Amino acid sequence: MTRVIVMDLSRHNTVMVGHDRYFILQADGRRLLVRDYCPHRGGPLSLARRTPDGRRLSCPWHGTKVGVAAVQRTCLPMVLSGDEAVVLLPEGEDAPVSVIRKEVLANLPPDAPCADGTGGPNTRTTGAATGDAATTGTPCP
Predict the structure, then answer these.
(1) 31, 78, 101, 119: which has the fewest C-beta neighbours closer than 10 Å?
(2) pLDDT at position 106, please?
(3) How far is CA 36 from CA 26, 119, 122, 133, 139, in A?
(4) Does a structural domain hold residue 110?
């Protein structure tokens, strides 16, 4: 039997169903509840940063690029009314459900700073002490 949950999107942006995570992705002017899972090794796509063209997410674990269109195809059925969302959870899921709020970097523009005020992607400098400064692909500390 399908379970239904109601989310207040002004307060929550993540759903945990057992060990599965879903987060609100803003894409093409729409809000979608998508799976928080990179197909490469299961990294949290909610912490991914968009590539400069905005069409892909760069996984925070290994830098794997995942198309936003592919992520959109993992969305759960959801009906929006203002900031309220009625979500249909996958069938057969009898696991406990938690609705929480966490930082979602995937919704930030590619060059936006992180919540702690540090720079966006490719801004962490390594090797500064030796004069061999280089940037890494690590999105945020």
Answers:
(1) 101
(2) 93
(3) 13, 23, 22, 33, 17
(4) no
Q: Report the alpha-carbon angle 102-100-69, nearest 5.
A: 65
Q: What is the CATH number of the domain that holds 47?
A: 2.102.10.10
> The tokens 């979608």 sit on which residue?
32
**Within-domain flag for 10:** yes
Half-sphere exposure of 104 (CA within 13 A, CB side): 22
Task: Give pLDDT tens digits for 45-90.
Answer: 999 999 999 899 999 998 899 999 999 998 999 999 999 999 999 8
What does pTM read for this prediction? 0.76
Residue with tokens 């379970």: 3
For 46, the 3-state DSSP assignment is helix
